Amino acid sequence: MGGHDGIALPAEAATAVVADLRARFPDGRLRNQRHSYDGARTWMQLAPSSWQRSQTASLFPLLTSVSKLGEVSPYLSRQRADLQERLDRQPLLGRGKYDGG
Description:
- It contains three helices and two strands.
- Strands 1-2 form a two-stranded antiparallel sheet.
């Protein structure tokens, strides 16, 4: 596995992460465990050239819909599947896939 700076990451360094993913999400489906927007703040425009930092960011229906706690996130699950595909190509990390192996 390669890092962003071109230095290879030793396979052993990822072993604990892979084991944790398998233990927490044995079926490979990741569920929302927190709201990603908790504590987020934004800027509010008060006048054409005047902005103020808001105490909280505003929500909208789509964000609320895809952020329900405990619900399977297809987006996170797809990222997990992409990661598993990459790990499967690694000789030391590809063993024991999410399918129960």
